[in-house]
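Spend some time on this chain, tokens included, and walk me through the fold:

. . .
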Amino acid sequence: MRLTDRTLNWLPGPVAQLMRRHRETVKFVIVGGFCYVVTLLVNYGLRLTVLEHKPVTALTIANVVASVVSYFLNREWSFRTRGGRRRHHEMALYLVINGIGVAVNAAPLFVARYVFGLQEPAVSALVEEISDFGFGMVLGTALAMLFRLWAYRAWVFPHDDVRPAPDRWDHTVPAQVAPAPVQADSAGS
């Protein structure tokens, strides 16, 4: 049984059934969560060392690193049955989409800092840091994630079921989760 199915079996029936119906999106969100941690580590690693006074540059570099990791994880796991394009064409589209995604991710931080002026000395260091995190790491990441999910499905991996899903462990198909029976309310009858 695949790891995804084993994990979903731990969830309540209706939740597991919903997640199985949206398996691709669930996997995309898991890859996104992992890449979010990569972005966070690279961003703050750069901001606390060599790019201390360049937060937009640090965030942009962090997003480029996470985008490379994301491509391989999404192609081989999240969207493994999708495709329909030659590998070099797929990679070129992926790079264009992620270039736009990096700009979408950095835009809220850029606006917060350079349009709204949420940086020292106009605000305290704490307010600046909270603003950077909220606009760059939270809002920017959420907007870029939504854009990427749509764009990957529409442009990078446009056709479903073109690559067979590998059966690495065994050939068993997980049992369908039956909906819970509806119980009559004895008080209301």
Notes: Confidence is low (pLDDT under 50) at residues 168-178. The longest helix spans residues 125-156. Residues 18 and 142 are 22 Å apart (CA to CA). The two ends are 43 Å apart (CA to CA).
